[in-house]
Amino acid sequence: MKKVLIISYYWPPAGGGGVQRWLKMSKYLPENGWQPIIYTPSNGEAPVIDESLLAEIHPDLKTVRTKIWEPYSFYKLLTGRKRSERVYSGFISSKKESFAQKLSVFIRGNFFIPDARKFWIRPSIRFLKKYLRENPVDAIISTGPPHSMHRIALGVAPPLGIPWIADFRDPWTRIDFYDQLRLTKWGDRRHRRMEAEVLRDATKIVTVSPSWASDFKDISGRNDIKIITNGYDPADFGQIEQRTEDRFVLCHVGSMNKDRNPYVLWDALAELIKDHGFASKLCIQLIGQVDHSILESLDSKGLTPYLEHIPFVAHSEVPAYLQAASLLLLPVNDTPNSMGVVPGKLFEYMGSGKPILAIGPEKGDTAAFIRESGSGSVIGYSDLDRAIEVVKRTCENRSEGLDHQQGSISRFSRKQLAQQYTQLLDSLLNPTLKNHG
Description:
The two termini are 24 Å apart. The chain is an alpha/beta fold. Helix content is 38%, strand content 15%. A 7-stranded parallel sheet has the order 3-2-1-4-5-6-7, with helices on both faces. The protein has a 6-stranded parallel sheet with strand order 10-9-8-11-12-13, sandwiched between helices. The protein contains 15 helices and 13 strands.
């Protein structure tokens, strides 16, 4: 069996969205003739710990771990956090930004380049060069963010002559919070130079949405950017006991930062709860970390009494929450790069079979996927009338299913996506293959 080394910062028992893509991909790659070897830190800073994900790891998968030093102890000291407190990405906060937090963002953007895992790059290059000479592989995949994973691959794959795929789950310099990093001109140039080197030297570039593929083409000048989306695993939904809810449950799963605050939805709900019949059924269920600005918005609209905030749910339990919901909320980041933002949770929402309410650009990639699959509705950031209409209609017709057929979402199943990655990997060893696009 051919072997592929996957360099990933996030790996179980670490939880959160950054784990799912390669946990699931590595689960199905062996069926297609590729044996994954995971290289990951032994002591990384995980946003959450989710022991349930350990059951998802393929029994034959090999994991190689080395220690990493990260500056989070300094960050916690600077911002007054406890040493045991976990650090969340995406600018999730429980209070307004202090001077210390602003300073920490400045340091992060300008000194920890490309990110706070930079101190793992050189030790990993030294370790992997020795390891791979003794344990050869046929290909390397680096997945980021954090983009330090790509810098590790850059220092290993070209010198050893190993084909390398740089897998971008999110952009680098065009990520939604890049303009919030308080970058100096020097810091910005350094980020862009590092990104350009990775895009130049990787054998293949993969990303998860059409707009981001276009962005990487624009940055790199390459015409061979491959799109392999995120997906859902039908196995996650196979053994769920169906629950019925008397309430109208508007459910969101995952972190909600301030750029995902769906103001128009809160306005719509504030209008709809004037109807006591609707108010008596409403439950706003937010599962995961929630920025203080969103909680303040809910309170200002009189919606706090309807809020059910569950800070953490194991991934194995998420499908049951999705299938018990009435409507699944998917706010898209209201940022300059929002056209290409396709949250990974979109596909798990699809797999649940429940209707989705996306709030974001109506011509964006998320909107296109929802419309193509018949999985729900998309409204603009300020379309109040449409928001009221969709929520009211869904509440009145909770017993009705979606229009989409299973075949319209099957292309997003983890098995099919693993087959796409297999074709790409095979093409690295046999360039005459035509399926790698």
